[in-house]
Description:
about 290 residues, mainly alpha, MetI-like fold, globular
Amino acid sequence: xxxxxxxxxxxxxxxxxxxxxxxxxxxxxxxxxxxxxxxxxxxxxxxxxxxxxxxxxxxxxxxxxxxxxxxxxxxxxxxxxxxxxxxxxxxxxxxxxxxxxxxxxxxxxxxxxxxxxxxxxxxxxxxxxxxxxxxxxxxxxxxxxxxxxxxxxxxxxxxxxxxxxxxxxxxxxxxxxxxxxxxxxxxxxxxxxxxxxxxxxxxxxxxxxxxxxxxxxxxxxxxxxxxxxxxxxxxxxxxxxxxxxxxxxxxxxxxxxxxxxxxxxxxxxxxxxxxxxxxxxxxxxxxxx
Length: 289
C-alpha cells in the first residue's frame, strides 16, 4: 500500500463518519416532516412507507385540527412554552453572565470553592433534582403554578461556567483597569466595555437556555396538573398517552406528529438566526478551556 493510498483512506474515513452522523441526526427530523403531512390512517396504512410522502397531503387539515381540537389548547401550550423559554432563557442568561463575570474578574473569599460547587452541579443529572424540587415547591405552595417551572430554570451551571471561561479569554484585565483609570465605575465598565465583547457567549448561553427550557419535560410533568399551564412537551405526551390507551382510545396520532413538527420550527429558526454567535461563543470557550 502506497503513501498516497494511506493518505486517501485517512481522508475518506472522517467524511464517512460525518455522513453517518448527518444521517443519524437528520433521519428523525425527516420522518417527522413526512409524518406531519399524513392523515391518521396514512401514518399506518400509507402506500409510500414511513419515510416518504403520501399522495394525500394532509398537513393543512392537521393544522386545522390542531386549532380546533380541545378548543385549540395546542396553541395555548405553544404560548406557554414560549413564555417558559423566553423568561427562563433571559433569567438564566442574566444570572450566568453576572456570575461568570464575577468569578472571572473579581477576587473574593471562597471564590474557588463557590466555582467548584458550580462545576459539581454540572455532574448532577437534572432529572435527579426533580423530586427534591417538587417537594420544595410543594412545601412553599408553588406547585401547579408557572413559578414551579420558571424558578428552577433560572439556574444554569453550564452557562456560568461558559461565561467565566469566555470572560477569562476575551476580557483583558488591562482593558478594565484602563477604563477604571479613566473614571468609569464598575457598572459602567461592565455595561459599556465588557458586555459588548461578551455578546457571542451571551447569545450562546441564551440559545442553550431557551432550548433547554423549551424541551423541558420531566419537571413540568411532575409539578403541573392544570392542562392550561402545560408546555408543549407535556401536552403532546398527554395526547400520545390518549392515543395509546387501548383499542377504544381516540386515535389522534396525526395531531401528535404535526404538533411535534410545528413545535420544533421556532427552535430551528432561532438556531439559524443566531448560529454565527453560537458557534463563535462555543469556540472561544473551547480554546480557552
